[in-house]
Amino acid sequence: MRREKPKFKQIIDAAVVVIAEHGYHQAQVSKIAKQAGVADGTIYLYFKNKEDILISLFEEKMGSFIEKIEQETEGISSSLEKLYVLVKTHFSVFAADPHMAVVTQLELRQSNKELRHRINEVLKGYLRLIDRIIVEGMEKGEFRRDLDIRLTRQMIFGTLDETVTTWVMNEQKYDLAALADPVYELLIKGCAAGR
C-alpha cells in the first residue's frame, strides 16, 4: 500500500541520487529527505531505516525493470529475439539512469551479508526471466539442447552485469546502449543451435 503513494516513489528516486553521489554509508536519511523535499520524519512513515530504503529501492527498480522486459518481449515468439530484447533493454535502462547504474553496480555490493541475501532474493525474479528464455529457446530448438541452464543464465547475467559495471567504473564515457548488438552476438554464438 505504501508503494502506491507518491511520496514513496519520491523518496526512492531521491535515495537513488543520494546513494549514487555519496555512497550508501554516507547517504544519511536526512540527505535523502532533503533530496526528496520531505521532512526527515516523513521517511520513517514509509521505511524502517536506511537498509529498508536500499532494499525497497532495489525491489521497486528491479520490479519495473522486469516488467519492462516482459512488456517488450510480449508477443515475440522467437527466443533469440527475446534474448536480444533483454540485452538491449538491460543496457538502455541503465544508460538512461546512470545514478541507478552506480547504485546497483557498486553500492549494492558493499552491503552486509543479511542485506546481500535480501538483495539476492529480489534478483531471483530477473534470473527466472532469463531462465524462461533459455528453456523456451531449448524447447523450440533455437538454443542448443545440451545447454546447462544454470551456467547459461550465469553467463548471460554475468556478461550483462560486468559490462554495465565496467561502464560505471569508466565514468560512463561511452555509449552503453550501443554495446547491445556486439554483446548479443557473443552470447548467441554460445547459446544458439547450429552456430
From TrEMBL:
Superkingdom of the organism of origin: Bacteria
Keywords: DNA-binding
Keyword DNA-binding: yes
PROSITE patterns the UniProt entry points to: HTH_TETR_2 (PS50977)
Coiled coil: none
Pfam families with a match to the protein in the record: TetR_C_4, TetR_N
A molecular function (GO) term: DNA-binding transcription factor activity
Keyword DNA-binding on entry: yes
DNA-binding region: 28-47
Domain HTH tetR-type: start-end pairs: 5-65
Designated name of the protein: Fatty acid metabolism regulator protein
